[in-house]
Write a structure and sequence with these properties.
single chain, mainly alpha, 286 residues
Length: 286
């Protein structure tokens, strides 16, 4: 089975291996939707969500294993440094997986040039970057049209919009991971597809410019998605901690302390990522 291509236990010794798994899963997800759903008059309208759904299906076994493993380790550590040492391998593995998704999505979206593949993602991009005229923004990024830049919002408005969107995503990541530990991968795969759509838009759908687009969006994208991964781990650890130890166990109190630390760190990172996106990235990539 494709979802069993890699043994999650081996990731601890080489988190970078997840880059290739992300490339495979992301490519298969988008190509399957293109082959089987892009011409369907009804399902093609939901292609963007179906791509993410396939990614989730492929990634669930790994996500489930890693959350369970991290929950076991969390009972034995305390303090910010101890929490980081216990969970850094898992976070790096998820980051590599995320980068693999982005590379695959951006590459195939640019090659296939089918607007329906990321219809929802482009609309989300426009909602954040041009909230006053979403429909016009979406129309500008149709492959049948010439790509043009949208009217930019003021920095303060963009900063508030980005922070609001990021916190919204963080809350959903936490809720998903609490309800179904591995379910947070849906939110993370969705964000990978949105960033991939943004990269394609920035590069004007030129394959040779994709590395530049990745640099443009991952300066703030890496810390942002790291915050979501930290949130997902916190939610999954909390849920497993309740089931395994109960709320009266001393071990559970330690789990709560570590979860609070993880969420605090995630919020700080999200704010820093938003500041980088609004004030630093435009200077480096005009």
């Amino acid at each position: 089975m494709l979802e069993s291509l890699i043994n999650p236990k081996k990731v601890e010794k080489g988190p970078w291996k997840m880059l290739f798994i992300g490339l495979i899963y992301g490519s298969l997800s988008l190509l399957l939707v293109y082959w089987f759903f892009s011409k369907d008059p009804v399902l093609s309208q939901y292609s963007g969500l179906i791509v993410v759904t396939f990614c989730v299906m492929f990634s669930l076994p790994f996500m489930y294993f890693i959350i369970k493993q991290e929950a076991d380790q969390d009972e034995q550590v305390e303090g910010l440094l101890g929490v980081w040492k216990a969970h850094s391998d898992a976070i790096f593995a998820l980051m590599w997986l995320f980068l693999g998704f982005i590379l695959a999505f951006a590459l195939w979206y640019t090659i296939l040039q089918d607007t329906n593949l990321f219809n929802a993602q482009v609309e989300t991009y426009c909602m954040i970057n041009n909230p006053g005229s979403i429909e016009d923004c979406v129309a500008r990024y149709d492959f049948s049209q010439q790509v043009a830049s949208t009217g930019a919002a003021t920095r303060e408005v963009r900063l508030l919009s980005i922070i609001e969107n990021n916190v919204y995503v963080m809350i959903f990541t936490l809720i998903f991971s609490l309800i179904f530990g591995a379910g947070a991968i849906f939110v993370l795969a969705w964000n990978a597809s949105v960033i991939a759509a943004a990269i394609s838009i920035f590069t004007k759908y030129q394959i040779t410019h994709i590395p530049l687009g990745i640099a443009r969006y991952m300066i703030h994208g890496f810390p942002e998605i790291a915050a979501y991964f930290i949130t997902a781990l916190a939610g999954g650890i909390f849920g497993v901690g309740i089931i395994k130890n109960g709320i009266k166990s001393p071990k559970f109190l330690r789990v709560i302390e570590n979860v609070v630390i993880l969420l605090f760190v995630a919020i700080v990172i999200l704010i820093l990522a938003a500041l980088i996106e609004v004030y630093l990235t435009p200077i480096l990539f005009k």
